[in-house]
Amino acid sequence: MNNRELERCLSRGAIGEKEDNLQVVVETQNGGCPTRYMSEVTWAGRGFDWTAGLFLIRPKDPLVVARVLTSSIRQAAEERLARAKEVHDKLGFKYIMKARENEWLEGFIEGVRMHITSCTEDPK
C-alpha cells in the first residue's frame, strides 16, 4: 500500500460517518478470541534519511516478523539438526552430535514454543 491508497481508503468512507473517533491499531498475526491481538498506533508520518520515501506507522508494542512453519516443529528441528550435522562433517569437527541428538531436538522444540508464547502473550 502507498500513501495515496491509504488516503483513498480514509476518504472513501472506510471509517464511516458514525465512527468519527476510532482508535487506530495494527492487527497482528498473534491469535486471539474473538479477534487477533491489536497494537495501538503511537505515531504515523513521513520517514526521512534512511526511511525517506516511506510512510511509517509506529505500533505501541514491538511486533516480530515470523516465518510460519510449513511443517511440525519436530520435523523442522530434525531438518535443522541434519543440516548442522552436515556442516560438522564438512568442517571435520570431532564432536559427535549423535550422543545428544534427542536433547538437542527437545531443546529446539522448547525454544520454538517459548518464542511462540512470548509473541502471543499480552504484554500488559
The proportion of strand residues reads: 5-15%
Largest sheet: 3 strands, antiparallel
- Total domain count: 2
Contiguous helical run count = 3
Overall radius of gyration:
22 Å
Q: What structural class should be given to the helix and strand makeup? A: alpha+beta
- Total beta-strand segments: 3
Mean pLDDT over the residues: 82
Write the element-wise H/E pattern from the N-terminal end onward: HEEEHH
- Which consecutive residue ranges, at least 5 long each, have pLDDT under 50? none
Strand order of the largest sheet: 1-2-3
Describe what you observe in this structure.
- The model has no long low-confidence stretch (mean pLDDT 82).
- The chain is 39% helix and 14% strand.
- It contains three helices and three strands, in the order H-E-E-E-H-H.
- It has 124 residues and is an alpha+beta fold.
Q: What key phrases describe this protein's structure?
A:
124 residues, alpha+beta, 2 domains, three-stranded antiparallel β-sheet, elongated
What is the gist of this entry?
The protein is of the alpha+beta class. 39% of the residues lie in helices and 14% in strands. The chain folds into 2 domains: 3-59, no CATH class; 73-120, no CATH class.
